[in-house]
Amino acid sequence: MRAVTIRDKGISVEEHPDPTPGAGEVLVRVRAAGLNGADMMQRRGLYPAPPGSPQDIPGLELAGEVQALGEGATRFALGDRVMAITGGGGQAELAVVHERQLMPVPALLDWPQAGGLPEVFTTAHDAIFTQAGLRPGERLLVQGGAGGVGTAAIQLARAAGAQVTATVRNESLREDVRALGAQALDPEGFAEHGPFDVVLELVGAPNLADNLAALATGGRIVVIGVSAGAKSEINLLALMGKRARIHGSTLRARPLEEKALTARLLEREVLPLFQAGAVKVPVAQTFPLERAADAYECFAAGGKLGKIVLTV
Amino acid sequence: MRAVTIRDKGISVEEHPDPTPGAGEVLVRVRAAGLNGADMMQRRGLYPAPPGSPQDIPGLELAGEVQALGEGATRFALGDRVMAITGGGGQAELAVVHERQLMPVPALLDWPQAGGLPEVFTTAHDAIFTQAGLRPGERLLVQGGAGGVGTAAIQLARAAGAQVTATVRNESLREDVRALGAQALDPEGFAEHGPFDVVLELVGAPNLADNLAALATGGRIVVIGVSAGAKSEINLLALMGKRARIHGSTLRARPLEEKALTARLLEREVLPLFQAGAVKVPVAQTFPLERAADAYECFAAGGKLGKIVLTV
After folding, report:
1. Residues A270 and A285 reside in one and the same domain
2. Domain span including residue A107
3. Residue B276: its pLDDT value, please?
4. Alpha-carbon distance B249 to nearest alpha carbon in chain A (angstroms)
């Protein structure tokens, strides 16, 4: 099979042996696979794939058709449209995924949308609901609202009855973010627009002090992106005074059983929203697999609202 | 009535008007009232009492007998032995407390034990169970294990089937802490004894980096004391890698309904342990109300295991 390959921090497309599904696993004929910030970090050698995942084939998510079933895999039939997050190896013609990580693709979604859905919607749902416990009527601040996780979080929070404010550095994207249902702000001076019950931090540590200052009593901060920096001073007395908590999280390193739980939650709480057309996967641009290097360039350049997706 | 009084950062005992119970409130004839770190801070002007509590009479907890009932107060009868946390005003001959904050005093407890129970056991229970979600078999680290909250946390965690390690700076107190069921360590180098699932931080920000380093995946840090300092650097990437969370908390500023909830939880989950003799309130020393200034000196000097309690 052909697969995106990381070699000496460069991106190429090379021939690899076809993977074979083990017990409980499914061989997926990949149709689309989204790019994510973690791919950029992995390419730079900063974020190795977890044990058991291909080390040199990136790709944290995929959508495609069931091509073969491993022993005892019973959740799906040959030809079913499926999608999943995976520890790596999604950006290839074929990928092996445990059946309990797979989700059915809602009928309304085309391949690029399905291939760009799992990672950002799972991440956003886990962060704002499972961890921060966002409630109807609460005020959510999304720090970095124009990215994949940001646009997913805005839509999910709105669908759950929360009020959403999002910071968007790129002025030209703010109108698109507003169209998703958020108040879109320049990051400068965001704290004046608080208080916020939940802050989803996708930018980094430089925001921490102002996040805490803008937090409501009992507020929660969830940090899942630190591209702008990881270290910051924290005032624990301020944290105590707000009776607040700060979560740090990643999806990728979690064991199968925890990832499977997030997939079941998405099937129950998020996929019906896609069936109903209430939320969408913004796809900024697609590239065929063979042009993966161009796709990585495009992702790294930024400035787009929505996902960059490889099609196979 | 006579009451401990804060005046120009000094402690005296002065005459005050008797308080009268409003609707749903109970007038308690105080028999014992424990001292807490918050009293020391309030004396220094750093921790004002919340609105609605006496500003010049300290005391966050009390035990005594029901002397009069406000309109509609039905949970207790005249003469009942009761105890409670309160926003302030506990160190006096009389105090008014809402009946939903009051708990019955277990039969095995004498007045000094009852007067020193509510604050530290409510704080410890709320921190390690309600917030950190400590589970049977998990490993708890108590940073500052010889204080009132520390000794309460050690006993509650042991009774719930957790393994407990405690740092104790004062070497002469370590044997007493071991007798409560914890491994007692010098604070220096504590991180080598991890990993820990939950850290109860009673000392301050200087421990934060090592707490995070010693935390297990999915671990929780609860900060409720920062006498050694409130500010520290935090590495959010490390927090993400551990999929960890940091809570800050105080009890005092919470609204009545939340304090009442903590009282109901204590009645259900903690007071039966006192009835069974499975946990105890270590009382280091008692002072009559008129010697409050000496009691404050004794508390500030430290070096004792257990509560300093005023008796009335």
Report:
1. yes
2. 2-117+258-311
3. 94
4. 4
